[in-house]
Amino acid sequence: MKIPRKPAIAFASFAAASALFLSACSSSTTDASSSTTTDSSTDSTTETVSSSTTNGEATYDDLDISDVDLSPSTDGATTITLADGASSSDGDGVTIDGDTITITAAGTYVLSGELSDGQVVVDVEDGDVYLVLDGASITMSGAPAIQVDNASNTIVYTEAGTTNTLADTGTYDDTDEETGGAALWSSDDLFLAGEGTLIVDAGRNDGITSKDTLVIASGTVEVTAVDDGIRGKDALVILDGDITVDAGTGHALKSDNEADDEDTSRFVGVVWIEGGTIDLTSGEDGIHAANQVTIDGGDVTVDAGDDGIHSDVYLRIGDAEIDITNSYEGLEAAMMYLDAGTVSIVSSDDGINGSDGSGQSDTTGMGGAPGGGSMPNGGGPGGGSASGTSTTTDGTTSTTSTTTTSGTISVTYTTSTDDTSTASTTTTAMGGVDAAEEGVLVTISGGTYLINADGDGLDSNGSIEMTGGTVVISGPTNNGNGAIDYNGTFEITGGTIAASGASGMAQSPSSGEATLSISFNNTVASGTTLSVLDSDGNLVMSFTTEKTSSSLVLSSSELTSGETYTVVSGGTASGGDAYGPLMIGGTLTGGDTLGTLDAS
């Protein structure tokens, strides 16, 4: 067993040099809010303008959801008994042709029994149709188990205490415009509700799809699909329920209509979650929307092959519990509003990514410093060339002093306003500068966000504004990414951010509240507690590294600009308010003093 080596530190003002610490990620020039499509029949180019461009961010009322009764009475309902070659009904509005049952009139229908290769079709000229599933099992080969061709609204309701199964098998033909591409498919608005269980096993394509709006209000819904799990092309709204989705090669939850060509004032391409317990597994994004994702409640868990939650334009998170256990990028959108919530993110690339969304995900792994390799042991910003601190500080604009601390040289110096200091070395190492993208902004006003990212932790190809909340980042171990990364500005006027990671692309907020930016000469081992004490010896904040690190940025109202703080490695911090690896306040016992520095 090796004894972990205590790190030497170098203090640097990343904020003052932020103009030189620019994005690790490539930028894109495509406008997120519009796309171009080609009509092959005329060989002409037309532009589709998304509803978000026309209408902006949608409110819940803007979704214009139909007012329907989600607690249907079965008094006087028509009963349909399903049986292979022997299905029957006791009322009007139903035609039976072999194993195809077609509902032709509005009303309430109670379904029970089993079809091993049959289908229920809804084709009603006007009015709402209630399908009350009371122990029904329908499997259909080559087509949906339930297909809604026409109805004002269709409500699929599961009776309390029942388990109901819908399945399709065979191969999906995406050129067939008559046959729906999901085990439960609707051409009009579709509602799911009830107190029972609905199991959907989609062997052809998607699990549940509405070409218009799909609302899940209650009940237990379990979906397994070879492609997308649950899809509302205009809007997908989840109000409550216990929902589990396993989407093989597709998105778990999806809304993909960019615009309504017949009514451009409509808000479409929206996923909206108000509540429920939602467990998502997907080959692509866990949640994907063409225009907007709003999560204002609920408990959401995501294991995604691509992005955890992705919107091409708007993403807003309110008072929700979100746990992204696996993703390429955790959260991605052009306009991101993090208002509240408790969110944890594990990502192989960026944890939070403000982007227009047009970039192609490279799930084979983007991480790694230019030229490959991981964070150097004993290196510093720029892959080791800037770690000498006192030798890279511009003596004409900085005041330096050197002290010996436990045999390790540390350096304390005031901020230089000349960008020829440590930062210049790093920029040269990266060899590239990305311009800020217009229309890209990450706004953080509340909530707690814990990020464990192999790429950038908090990244914006535009700017970042933080007025509240707590963001804690265990960032990259390679110098090709940074725990904080932005192309424009990062203004922080409230809240707390703690960002640990490699130092090659390290950035800190460009303006606002007090900040400590610390670069370590030697790699800090995982599990090391790094603490900051005020001039009276009181513990202000501590951060316990979750992976190797060579930089730490702390910005908080707990710090005071111009005040001198002591940095301590090791020891035990306790009694404070914990946010993942970050603790605010409390007491520290033990540890070794590394040096002092002034907050910017």
UniProtKB/TrEMBL annotation:
- Signal peptide, first to last residue: 1-32
> Species name for this entry?
Demequina capsici
Q: Which residues form a coiled coil?
A: none
One family name in Pfam for this protein: Cthe_2159
Q: Tell me which PROSITE patterns the record gives.
A: PROKAR_LIPOPROTEIN
Q: Which UniProt keywords apply?
A: Signal
Q: What is this protein called?
A: Carbohydrate-binding domain-containing protein
Biased amino acid composition, Low complexity: 28-54, 349-364, 387-427
InterPro entries reported for this sequence: Cthe_2159 (IPR025584)
Q: Where is this region: Disordered?
A: 28-67, 349-427
Specify residue ranges for compositional bias: Gly residues.
Answer: 365-386
